[in-house]
């Protein structure tokens, strides 16, 4: 899921300064699951914004996914009654809102953090960097691109001590995890193969990415 | 065609986990009405009609809810699976201080006995008081070194005073040391070499002067962290129930259909009372079930928040639903205690209280109804009651606020007293986060959490609320 974290409320207040009719829009997708952008958080943020400035009127609602036009169409009539939208979706949702509702601005209330998962309730960790060229089959299903602080393809480095990364004692050395996992899978020989430098053109180095399923594209005649 | 399985539900057997005489007696009594499985980790030669006895066993897994638990029991390396309706556990204590006292108390010659008691449950403390009183009256000298004199049970103060008058010596805030080499420092449980004769020094500010009291003891015991035996702790963990539910009722449980009979916490329930109560509880376990909360499948995001945070394990996955996932979480009515935590925590606002009333604004106090909250009814302070502090969500707090209010008070149970796990702690975390938000907005609203008890005086609660 996409994990986001609420911005400082003072920053959000700064973004909506001067507006009197505000709509907080939550998203029912990833950010609901990571507890920062769902219906509850939308209602809470609306309440807090009123407490921060009792002179403004703040409403809240939540759509199933902010990144789909059809879901956004469902709220178009409500949008018109407001002067600014505060989105607590990820950056995709904020951009979708701005793209779809051109007459007014949608401002971001979340900082989109990473693609991750909850390892315990309330604790979310990064698991994927969307590098565009997955190598998990080579590394025991553990990603060195997202989870090695140096993105090393042939680890570990000299900073691995006691299974921890030199960056922080709270960060596991992913190459230690990969070693342990491959040992369990009886695939330690994989570590003997030198991985060539990663082709980052599939990632951000190739510019903004696009994925097309030609077979799914409608030709406009239907 | 009549669906007989629906109309005539078959009563499931009862699983009793315990090896004491009393556990066996309960098994015999209940076997008159239902099939009983009696299991425990030790050996036994016992046999009884109507009771399936499984010794040398470990409880490996429990799934399901009240009336329909699937349990996996490992016996001599083999795993058996049973379906039972109710599970009753009789935890054995790790150290039985009362039995220790009784074992030497019958000696004919006068003995000096020292017992160091730390973190002892009130019910056990009560038995220690009774036994010490009896031993002193038989001519023994009993010294009790305690972290706390406990009297919070029926006639507790009276029993304590009787024990003191009879000659039981109490030391509170005392430091124990051994005279040979350990000097003035504290000695530990491990340093007490055995329960046999030895000399101990008691340093305490309650004695005149600074010299320690030297006791030539015939027996010394050190009982710390009174708790169930390790194999019973494992059973309680598998069952998903807590071993230290501080309520003065021996059948408290955090999971419906699972009864932990632990007399160590308080009221002196007799064996007959317990057996009668168990018969009623077993027969009533599934009847008259009312669940006040439901999941709206169309809104459920399947985030597992309710599943993970329900203190009673009453939420299950699997309700077929017409939503994006085809399924939704389900609150199992037979397992729900109506504490409302799921509603407060659901990030999708997909859980609602059936026929709930909106929280009116301008309420100065939000209170857990199990704490002393209801005592406010005789005051003029506007308040709202909730089934548990854990059910008071941030949205509830915000709704109670009005622009002219700069302070809100929330009443919770005292630490360790929440019958729904840690509702007060969950609430406090929410309030801390909310107070941080308000601080960052420079909003002069303070939200305070006060721990109160239903045993507190109303005027005292009122004073604390108004002065908070």
Explain the overall architecture.
The complex is a heterodimer of chains A (222) and B (468). In chain A, the strands form 3 sheets. Chain A has a 4-stranded parallel β-sheet with strand order 3-2-4-5, sandwiched between helices. In chain A, a hairpin with a 2-residue loop joins strand 6 and strand 7. Chain A is built from 8 helices and 9 strands. Chain A has helices spanning 9-15, 30-33, 39-52, 69-73, 76-79, 91-100, 144-147, 174-184, and strands spanning 2-6, 21-27, 57-63, 84-87, 106-108, 110-120, 123-128, 164-165, 168-172. Mean pLDDT of chain B is 83; it is low at 1-8. With 468 residues, chain B is an alpha/beta fold. The interface between A and B is medium-sized, with 23 and 28 residues.
What percentage of amino acids of chain B are in beta strands? Answer: 25-35%
Binned, the helix content of chain A reads 25-40%
**Helical run tally of chain A:** 8
Mean pLDDT of chain B: 83
Secondary-structure class of chain A: alpha/beta
Report strand order across the widest sheet of chain B.
3-2-1-7-15
Low-confidence stretches of chain B: 1-8
- What is the chain-wise order of helices and strands of chain A? EHEHHEHHEHEEEHEEH
Largest sheet of chain A: 4 strands, parallel
Shape of chain A, please? globular
Our estimate of the beta-strand percent of chain A is: 15-25%
Secondary structure layout plus pairing:
The complex is a heterodimer of chains A (222) and B (468).
Chain A: E1 2-6, H1 9-15, E2 21-27, H2 30-33, H3 39-52, E3 57-63, H4 69-73, H5 76-79, E4 84-87, H6 91-100, E5 106-108, E6 110-120, E7 123-128, H7 144-147, E8 164-165, E9 168-172, H8 174-184
Parallel strand pairs in A: 2-3, 2-4, 4-5
Antiparallel strand pairs in A: 1-6, 6-7, 8-9
Chain B: H1 4-7, E1 14-17, H2 21-30, E2 36-39, E3 51-54, E4 57-65, E5 68-75, E6 78-84, E7 86-89, H3 97-105, E8 112-118, H4 122-137, E9 141-146, H5 156-166, E10 169-172, E11 175-177, E12 198-203, E13 213-217, E14 219-224, H6 230-239, E15 258-260, H7 271-284, E16 293-295, H8 305-309, E17 315-320, E18 327-331, H9 341-345, E19 351-353, E20 365-368, E21 383-386, H10 394-400, E22 407-412, H11 423-440, E23 446-451, H12 458-467
Parallel strand pairs in B: 1-2, 1-7, 2-3, 7-15, 8-9, 8-14, 9-10, 20-21, 20-22, 22-23
Antiparallel strand pairs in B: 4-5, 5-6, 11-12, 12-13, 16-19, 17-18
Helix pairs in contact in B: 2-7, 3-4, 4-5
């Amino acid at each position: 899921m996409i994990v986001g974290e609420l911005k400082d409320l003072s920053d959000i207040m700064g973004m909506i300064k001067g507006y009197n009719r505000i709509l907080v829009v939550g998203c029912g997708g990833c950010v609901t699951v990571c507890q920062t952008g769902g219906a509850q958080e939308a209602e809470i943020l609306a309440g807090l914004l009123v407490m921060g400035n009792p002179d403004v009127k703040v409403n809240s609602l939540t759509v199933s996914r902010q990144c789909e036009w059809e879901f956004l169409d469902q709220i178009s009539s409500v949008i018109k009654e407001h002067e600014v939208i505060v989105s607590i979706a990820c950056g995709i949702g904020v951009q979708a809102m701005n793209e779809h509702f051109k007459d007014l601005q949608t401002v971001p209330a979340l900082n989109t953090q990473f693609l991750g998962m909850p390892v315990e309730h309330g604790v979310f960790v990064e698991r994927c960097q969307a590098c565009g060229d997955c190598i998990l089959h080579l590394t025991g299903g553990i990603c060195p691109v997202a989870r090695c602080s140096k993105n090393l393809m042939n680890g570990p480095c000299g900073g691995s001590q006691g299974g921890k990364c030199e960056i922080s004692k709270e960060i596991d050395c992913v190459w230690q995890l990969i070693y342990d996992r491959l040992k369990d899978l009886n695939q330690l020989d994989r570590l003997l193969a030198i991985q060539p430098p990663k082709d980052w053109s599939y990632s951000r180095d190739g510019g903004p990415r696009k994925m097309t399923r030609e077979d799914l594209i409608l030709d406009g005649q239907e | 065609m009549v669906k007989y399985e629906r109309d005539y539900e078959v009563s499931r057997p009862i699983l009793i986990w315990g090896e004491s005489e009393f556990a066996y007696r309960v098994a015999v009594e209940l076997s008159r009405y239902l099939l009983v499985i009696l299991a425990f980790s030790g050996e036994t030669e016992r046999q009884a009609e109507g009771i399936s006895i499984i010794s040398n066993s470990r409880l490996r897994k429990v799934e399901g809810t009240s009336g329909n638990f699937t349990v996996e029991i490992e016996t001599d390396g083999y795993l058996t699976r049973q379906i039972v309706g109710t599970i009753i556990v009789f935890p054995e204590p790790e150290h039985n201080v009362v039995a220790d006292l009784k074992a030497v108390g019958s000696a004919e010659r006068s003995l000096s006995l020292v017992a160091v008691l730390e973190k002892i449950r009130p019910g056990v403390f009560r038995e220690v008081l009774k036994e010490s009183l009896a031993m002193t009256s038989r001519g023994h000298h009993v010294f009790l070194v305690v972290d706390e004199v406990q009297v919070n049970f029926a006639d507790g103060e009276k029993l304590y005073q009787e024990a003191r008058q009879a000659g039981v010596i109490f030391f509170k805030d005392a430091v124990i040391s051994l005279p040979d080499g350990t000097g003035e420092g504290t000695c530990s449980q491990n340093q007490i070499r055995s329960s046999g004769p030895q000399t101990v020094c008691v340093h305490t500010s309650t004695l005149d002067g600074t010299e320690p009291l030297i006791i030539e003891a015939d027996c010394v015991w050190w009982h710390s962290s009174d708790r169930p035996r390790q194999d019973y702790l494992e059973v309680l963990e598998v069952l998903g129930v807590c071993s230290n539910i501080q309520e003065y009722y021996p059948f408290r449980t955090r999971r419906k259909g699972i009864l932990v009979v632990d007399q160590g916490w308080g009221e002196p329930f007799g064996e007959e009372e317990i057996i009668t109560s168990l018969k009623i509880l077993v027969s009533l376990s599934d009847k008259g079930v009312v669940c006040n909360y439901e999941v709206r499948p169309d809104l459920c995001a399947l985030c597992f928040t309710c599943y993970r945070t329900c203190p009673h394990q009453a939420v299950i996955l699997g309700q077929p639903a017409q939503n994006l996932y085809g399924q939704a979480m389900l609150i199992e009515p037979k397992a729900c205690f109506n504490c409302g935590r799921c509603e407060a925590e659901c990030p999708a606002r997909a859980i609602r209280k059936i026929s709930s009333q909106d929280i009116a604004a301008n309420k100065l106090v939000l209170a857990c109804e199990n704490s002393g909250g209801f005592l406010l009814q005789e005051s003029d302070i506007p308040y709202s009651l909730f089934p548990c502090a854990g059910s008071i969500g941030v949205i509830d707090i915000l709704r109670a606020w009005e622009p002219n209010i700069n302070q809100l008070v929330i009443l919770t149970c005292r630490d360790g007293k929440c019958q729904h796990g840690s509702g007060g702690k969950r609430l406090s975390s929410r309030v801390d986060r909310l107070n941080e938000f308000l601080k960052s907005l420079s909003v002069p609203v303070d939200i305070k959490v006060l721990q109160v008890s239903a045993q507190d005086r109303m005027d005292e609660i009122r004073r604390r609320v108004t002065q908070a």
